[in-house]
Design a protein that fits this description.
This protein is an alpha/beta fold. It is built from 19 helices and ten strands. The chain has a six-stranded mixed sheet with strand order 6-7-8-3-9-10. Strand 4 and strand 5 form a beta hairpin. Helix 9 runs antiparallel to helix 10. The longest helix is centred in the middle third of the chain and has 54 residues. The protein is elongated and about 120 Å long.
């Protein structure tokens, strides 16, 4: 429909100079005559042509813009959905601000090209082709003067276009770096202000904006060289048309009306070429931005999904680490985990302890398959996690981390994140089990209270209890507690610990805790050091045997006594 409307609008645009030419000739032929019938009829036709052109242009502009905006919306959705499928390793190497810049700034650049620019491209192409055909039919020699500008424009477009695309891509990179810096500083505003680093962050952002400004000036210089070259060539051709056409009128080879019509067609050609130069610049910038978008769309997760993944079925929750060796790669070749063998039975609570950097968090991150091991296997119910669909696997794994990530919706939304189709009654039941219902009910808006970005409006203990409620609602068979109480005060820790006891009941649980007093009741304790299993046993067994666990326990006990 848009193509048909464009064809008709451009057709009426090409009729206009012809009608004007006849209007001029009719006026010249009837100089001194009082009969204005032909003149009046021609003006009515001209107004009708303008009205039809305006109507079809409106239809064409709307429909092409609608198609273009739809393409951009699809592109944003596809890019965001694709980003969510990439592994944690990808996000460790990229900054959030850079990715959001590609979703916003880069896609907006493409948006201008595929909406308004696309409409112009269609209409100007039809106008250019139609006008050139009519010119050659009217007077081939005169037409050659008009089209002589085309080679100049093409050469200028090729020369300047490549440079413009390269500079535009660099500009988008600089803007993305500035956005990433700003997002980090805003996200950590309390740290920035506590260290009085406002000036430092402002200077850092100003430097990055200064770099993007310098690239923008280079882009402006490229445009400044391109556009005047094309404009000079176009107006020179129009001057030659007037000169040569005027000579033909004087010799009687052309009527004044034909010259006027010819001049209008020549202006249409020049305008179309002028529009193409602007569109060329816009499309070159869009190509620079789209290359960055397609780089992301071409990214593939390092966690491959098998073509025919195995199904877990009814999960009992057995977790087995067989000869697991893992290294991050970008942090050197030293293994973070080396030949780890641990078998966690269904419903068993196993605590992982050891000094900082021992590999505890890395080990539990292998269970939901956030990373793949280089050697050995991680099994859930006897099935290698690499043979499973990650979504199927993670549906049976719940995680309560030390730094709870809440989203900027309501309390209800955050609890329901555990199971999207949960009823309000189920949400409240999970909150009660997590010792969260009382403080939630005390809020004026109750479960509809907005928690703010990252849950900033809630205390640490409140955030943890919402996270526990979320995990309870998910009802996983395998539970990972990564230092879930280490950052809490005594009162909050007691409430959270009580909620965790309910959460752990009947589930296979892996617990990481620096406070060894919190893991005394675990069924087994695995002692890790430098990525290797140093000892396994109950609290009493490990204390009786001595070694690293007793050293750590006695060190914490002495520090606690000194603190008191």
């Amino acid at each position: 429909m848009a193509a048909v409307a464009t064809l008709l609008a451009s057709g009426f645009n090409l009729v206009f100079p012809l009608v004007v030419g006849r209007l001029v000739d009719a006026s010249f032929l009837r100089i001194g005559s009082a009969d204005t019938t032909v003149l009046d009829r021609t003006v009515v036709i001209l107004i009708g042509v303008f009205a039809a052109q305006a109507g079809f242009t409106a239809v064409q502009t709307y429909l092409l813009s609608r198609a273009g905006e739809g393409v951009v919306a699809d592109l944003r959705r596809a890019l965001y959905a694709h980003l969510l499928t990439l592994s944690p390793r990808f996000f460790e190497a990229r900054r959030t601000g850079e990715l959001t810049s590609r979703l916003t700034s880069d896609v907006s650049t493409v948006q201008g090209a595929v909406s308004t620019a696309l409409a112009q491209l269609f209409s100007q192409t039809l106008t250019l082709v139609g006008a050139v055909v009519i010119l050659f039919v009217t007077n081939p020699r005169l037409s050659l003067l008009v089209v002589s500008v085309v080679p100049v424009v093409v050469l200028a477009g090729v020369f300047f276009g490549r440079r413009l695309r390269r500079v535009s891509k660099e500009f988008q990179d600089r803007v993305a770096a500035a956005n990433a810096s700003a997002e980090e500083a805003i996200g950590g505003i309390r740290v920035v202000q506590s260290f009085t680093a406002e000036g430092l962050e402002a200077r850092r952002y100003a430097d990055l904006i200064g770099q993007s400004y310098a690239v923008a000036l280079r882009r402006a210089r490229v445009r400044a060289g391109f556009l005047p070259t094309v404009i000079f060539a176009m107006f020179t051709s129009l001057a030659l048309v007037l000169w040569y056409g005027g000579r033909l009128v004087l010799t009687g080879a052309l009527t004044p009306g034909q010259l006027i019509s010819f001049l209008f067609y020549a202006i249409s050609v020049a305008s179309a070429i002028g529009a193409f130069t602007g569109l060329w610049s816009q499309f070159q910038e869009a190509l620079g931005a789209s290359s960055r978008i397609f780089e992301l769309l071409d990214e593939r997760s390092d966690l491959t999904v098998p073509e025919r993944p195995r199904a877990l079925g009814s999960v009992t929750g057995r977790v087995t680490f067989e000869g697991v060796t893992f290294r991050y790669g970008d942090r050197g070749d030293t293994p973070v985990l080396a030949d780890v063998n641990v078998d966690v039975r269904p419903g068993e609570v196993v605590a992982l302890v050891g000094p900082s950097g021992a590999g505890k968090s890395t080990l539990v991150a292998l269970v939901p398959r956030f990373y793949d091991v280089q050697e050995g296997r991680v099994l859930v119910d006897g099935v290698d996690v690499r043979d499973l669909d990650p979504r199927d696997l993670r549906a049976h794994v719940g995680i309560v981390p030390q730094e709870t990530q809440l989203f900027s919706g309501t309390v209800r939304d955050n609890v329901r994140y555990g199971r999207e189709d949960a009823t309000d009654a189920e949400v409240e039941l999970a909150a009660r089990a997590a010792n969260a219902h009382d403080f939630i009910s005390a809020f004026p808006d109750g479960y509809d209270t907005v928690v703010g970005e990252r849950g900033v409006k809630l205390s640490g203990g409140q955030r943890q209890r919402v996270a526990i409620a979320r995990a309870l609602l998910k009802n996983p068979r395998v539970l990972i507690l990564d230092e879930a109480t280490s950052a809490l005060d005594s009162e909050s820790e007691a409430l959270v610990q009580d909620a965790l006891e309910r959460l752990m009941t009947g589930r296979t649980t892996l617990v990481i805790a620096h406070r060894l007093s919190t893991v005394r009741n675990a069924d087994r304790i695995v002692v890790l050091d430098a990525g290797r299993v140093r000892d396994v046993g109950t609290h009493e067994e490990l204390m009786a045997r001595g070694g690293l666990y007793r050293d750590l326990y006695e060190l914490q006990f002495r520090e606690g006594e000194e603190a008191r």
